Amino acid sequence: MLATDRCDHLDDPWRDGAIAVRFHDDEASLGNILSAVEKQPLSGVVAVGDRPTVLAARVAEALGLPGNPVAAADATRSKKIMRRRFEAARMRTPWYFHMKADADAAVMASQVTFPCVIKPLGLSGSRGVIRADTARQFDYAVRRVRALLARPDVRAQRTGLTDELLIEGYIEGREYAVEGLVTNGTVRPLAIFDKPDPLDGPFFEETIYVTPPLLAEDLRRAVANEVQRAATALGFVHGPIHAECRIGPLGITMLEVAARPIGGLCSKVLRFDGNGARVPLEALLLRHAIGDDTSGFTRDTEAAGVMMIPIPRRGIFKGVAGESAAKEVPHVEDVLITAKRDQLLEPLPEGDSYLGFIFARAADSIAVVNALREAHRRLAFDIDPELRVLRG
Length: 392
Hints:
Helix content is 27%, strand content 28%. By secondary structure, it is of the alpha+beta class. The radius of gyration is 21 Å and the shape is globular.
């Protein structure tokens, strides 16, 4: 059974039989789901994005199914609350404070030690995240994020988190992500991803994820321990998590932990062997959601990676050349172009999508990264300038 954010006045417009919910209205959405499950009972609940995590927790609570407490899921939707939870747990955190989006940036800059990072409280995927190294850059970044938060598509999400910004110290170091499952409060890491492209700013567009990382075993254990501390600090009990951290001169610093799996098509890089079968991440999550023991499943031994193809510039997408050549690169499994012809493309920090995805597998992570870069090099994107309408 699927529940998606859509208008509940339309009669199944996509013919997928989904329950119509609105992620900004947990109470009404919970009622819609509970009404639907009277005829078709549920055995488990999984949220596959940031916005539905609280609703998923409420559904699990109402039906007595495994899941996270509502308060734990709610904490993941605000970067400010998450920082407070980490700080209370005595985890390593950068200095931080929050400010009203319409506050005087020049005044706030006097409280800042540079470099710093400006973040919207409730957006994900590095959207609206900007590094500033000077007071002038700080003022520019605040104005840019303020304009993003005023956009109709952002306001329409009704997160309640569009009026404040989080300002925090920039964290030196290389970035990693951890995919895991929480059972009875204990985290089992499924994979640790390296992000080999530097994420130094001023924007933080993720490109390559590759696993396993070139990390010593003691560092892998240390990362797993820090993810456990973060999950405990947030109050997670049961379900998938996606965590992000940096390893720098001062050690491991958790950036954030989400109560959901890795986003979108990126999950294709993960597959697991167990009980005589090989299953994708989604199948493992469903088994876990209904209470099955998934400890016998482990990630397959090949190195694997994905490149989220970055958008080079704003404009109208017209097409791509070189797909066949990219797919011929050794170790490349697939190239998926998800951008649609005549779609307006917009890079970070305002944008919230990619041109597509490249997937690769090999005996080691270096070969995977090299294959992804070569396949990307063979692609040529046709992007026309955007035609702006001038009002007289």
